[in-house]
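Reopening this ticket.

The earlier resolution said the output was attached, but the attachment link was broken on my side. Pasting everything inline this time so it's all in one place.
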Amino acid sequence: MSSIRMALASLISLFCFAFVMQQARAGDATANIPASPIGVWATENGFSHVKIEDCGGKLCGSLIWLKEPLNKEGKDKIDSQNPDPSLRSRKMLGLPLLNGFLSDGDGKVWSGGTIYNPDDGKTYSCKLTMQDPRTMKVRGYVGVSILGKTQIWNRVE
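Inline output:
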């Protein structure tokens, strides 16, 4: 009986070692993802993807994917709510949404920027806060940050 117990104990130890090594490798993969907003993000509702990139030393972002890119008539969705009539015919895909973000120094918080909401045609002050390399809080607000709304975006790329 003791040889069966020893074999079982060895098997359990081997399993535990394999599990720990797998978790360590998964952690390494996550560590390689930069804790920066630069990349492609799925918005909170999953209906769109936004690509954030460096635009002359500040971060900007545009809409690169829509779950439903066509309207009821089967045509490309456009920026119909824009307060500027000359911009209402812009296609939603490629639409600039984020503009002017600078790091607050630690690389986790990016502020001083704006976010455009094509649903209401308004532009809001915005702050981006990295929660971890794959998760970012996006806070849009008017005036002070307390008067706003937060979404959680998840990294796609």
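Reporter confirms the inline version is readable. The radius of gyration is 22 Å. The longest helix spans residues 2-31.
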